[in-house]
């Protein structure tokens, strides 16, 4: 009888709860765990190109002796821009150049999600799913991206062209929903925009970046709503006693 009462109470409580979000849950141990694979292991070949090595040396010179660790983020960014991702062998090379323990590089690479520790294809499509984008329909935008790229979230397309990921806040909340392809932002998205952008990338074209709604930046869609009059002159509404 007691078990039946508990079950009934749990069901009643469930009915009272409201679903706040329909976003699917994604669980992964990728951020904190490394396991050697044929593509990613300490023997994976990596060397900085001459140009990138010169860039890194110039960046290191910006910091005092003993503070080379401050160039760690820039070093990993150079690795990623050179080959598209950051294998563990590249982390070891960065640790060697900066004269820091390998663990310091692991800490950075596993903490910041911008560091891609596996190949994400030629075009890494990142769909923002934080609250402003979620309210503006990021769920259907993500579904459209998966259909257009023929690639599920967290995976890479069979041809190696697209890798699809979800991210938290791209820093363009006023222009939600937002999708980022590599370094290029696409804002104010609709389903038609998603298919157009992906198809242009497939065709080898560069889609126009920024808001897709016709906005120049993040101005109100309804037009200017503030600062419609010339600003008041100095002394406006100032107490008479303070004008002396």
Oligomer: single chain
Q: Could you tell me the radius of gyration in angstroms?
A: 25 Å
Mean pLDDT: 86
What is the CA-CA span between the terminal residues? 84 Å
Number of helices: 8
Fraction of helical residues:
25-40%
Q: Which shape, going by the Cα principal axes?
A: flat
Low-pLDDT segments, ≥5 res: none
Strand element count: 5
Largest sheet: 5 strands, mixed
Order of helices and strands: HHHHHEHHEEEHE
Percent of residues in β-strands: 5-15%
Give the helix/strand class: alpha/beta
Q: Strand arrangement, largest sheet?
A: 2-1-3-4-5
Summarize this, please?
It contains eight helices and five strands.
Can you describe what's shown?
This protein has 244 residues and is an alpha/beta fold. The chain contains 8 helices and 5 strands. Helix content is 36%, strand content 9%. The model has no long low-confidence stretch (mean pLDDT 86). It has a 5-stranded mixed β-sheet with strand order 2-1-3-4-5, with helices on one face. The chain is flat and about 75 Å long. The relative contact order is 0.09. β4, α8 and β5 form a beta-alpha-beta unit. The protein starts with a helix and ends in a 33-residue tail after the last strand.
How is the secondary structure organized here?
Blueprint: H1 2-16, H2 50-60, H3 72-83, H4 88-98, H5 102-111, E1 123-128, H6 131-135, H7 138-149, E2 162-167, E3 179-181, E4 184-187, H8 191-202, E5 210-211
Parallel strand pairs: 1-2, 4-5
Antiparallel strand pairs: 1-3, 3-4
Task: List the keywords.
244 residues, alpha/beta, five-stranded mixed β-sheet
């Amino acid at each position: 009888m007691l078990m039946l009462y508990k079950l009934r109470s749990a069901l009643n409580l469930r009915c009272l709860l409201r679903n706040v979000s329909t976003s699917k849950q994604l669980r992964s141990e990728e951020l904190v765990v490394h396991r050697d694979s044929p593509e990613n292991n300490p023997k994976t070949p990596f060397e900085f190109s001459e140009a990138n090595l010169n860039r890194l040396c110039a960046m290191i010179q910006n910091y005092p002796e003993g503070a080379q660790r401050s160039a760690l983020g820039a070093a990993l960014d150079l690795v990623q821009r050179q080959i598209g991702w950051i294998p563990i062998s590249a982390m070891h090379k960065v640790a060697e150049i900066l004269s820091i323990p390998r663990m310091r590089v692991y800490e950075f690479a596993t903490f910041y999600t911008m560091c891609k520790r596996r190949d994400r294809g030629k075009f890494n499509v990142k769909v923002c799913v934080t609250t402003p984008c979620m309210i503006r329909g990021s769920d259907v935008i993500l579904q459209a991206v998966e259909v257009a790229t023929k690639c599920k979230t967290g995976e890479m397309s069979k041809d190696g062209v697209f890798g699809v990921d979800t991210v938290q806040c791209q820093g363009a909340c006023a222009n939600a929903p937002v999708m980022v392809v590599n370094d290029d932002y696409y804002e104010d998205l609709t389903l038609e925009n998603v298919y157009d952008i992906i198809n242009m990338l497939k065709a080898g074209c560069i889609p126009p970046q920024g808001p897709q709604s016709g906005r120049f930046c993040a101005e109100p869609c309804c037009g200017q709503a503030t600062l419609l009059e010339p600003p008041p002159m100095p002394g406006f509404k100032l107490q008479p006693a303070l004008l002396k």
